[in-house]
Amino acid sequence: MLHSVSPSARRVVITGIGAVTPCGNSAPETWAALVAGRSGISRITRFDPTGCTAQLAGEVKNFDPARLLPTPLHPRGSAGDPLLQALTLKDLKKFGRFTHLGANAAVEAYADSGLDADRSRISAERIGVNLGVGLGGLPEMEAMHDTWKAGGFRKISPFFIIQIAPNLLAGQVSLLLDCRGANMSVASACATSGHALGEAAAAILRDDADVMVAGGAESTVTPLAIGAFAQMRALSTRNDAPTLASRPYDRDRDGFVLSEGSVVFILEERQHAQRRGARIYAELRGYGASADAFHLSSLAPGAEGSARSMRAALARAHLAPAEIDYVSAHATSTPGGDGEEAAAIASVFAGNKAQLNVSGVKSMTGHLLGAAGAMGAFAAVLAVHHGIVPPTINLENVDPVCGDLGLNFTPNTAVRRNVNAALANSFGFGGTNASLVVARMSD
To answer: Closest Cα to residue 101, out of 183, 181, 187, 30?
Structure first.
């Protein structure tokens, strides 16, 4: 077996990445789109949005949930192992759409990590799961309500509850990958998967696990979700030009774009990963969490709580603000939120604004809600790994409120540069904040 490491020496690295997003059905496809500045936002096709003020979304396209079926992974042992439970089409019908998206991203991350080849040397009890979901199975709730109204109680599916419960993604992934350590789900609105990653890293640091499958998923492109956010006047109504609708920091931004998708990482204790010769994308150095205690749906003035989460993550990482090269911002494209977060970034990084890149990848992906934190971390991790900062697209005229802060919002074109360390933000309704610091591996 691969032996554990004493808690005082433990560090957390990222060895696998999976993604199913509006920009691509895999991590490489999604990253290529981000670097190219290619939007995944389009007119809604999952239902008829006629009559709604917002008619665009970031939908996952050309996605086949059944691609899980032929997976060659055998985490429970050899193909002949009686414990190995292969998935069937019947099993997939028990998944909600967020579980389809999240399970595919998790399997991609697991395959990418190379863990499968080493499973005989790793205790399943040392592998845990923390996969967050913000709203759960809203599409299935809406559909089953219609079924019940039309046909009565006998028409309700016996699988309905396991389709909608938010923690069932973590449960299904633990079954698929034979993860017998901690199995949990975080729900903290749009900070959900930022918290999931941070808490998963904490589990490794305190020696509760050597490997964690962590991230988030969401699928709420539904009439009720789109309609509710539209009624809040939170969504962009640029229906005639969907790819131009999400425009963080731009003077003409008019709201966010609701999206679906999943991003999942394999987090691993550093020496554990090194002993098996794993490829390491980056080290997860710091995690900060805070509450605004100000308002349920608006950031505190100057994003004071967000600034505290960033400072806490930097302190945990033992890095000074001047050592951060890139901030993957929450940057939803809302008129108020972008400016408040930008003010917080300018405050935290006041001494190195001239050397700092900031960007908002929601300009291309839209807002993945429960998966947004992991999406932001995805940009930060791969910026460190590849030395490329993805852009903020559709940034044509910087809002003076943002522009006067002196930050470089990386407009429209990716920037090749050395990224030794990056910070990723995610903030959510309820005044909840999460910040993560990732960095190149050091001795």
So the answer is: 30
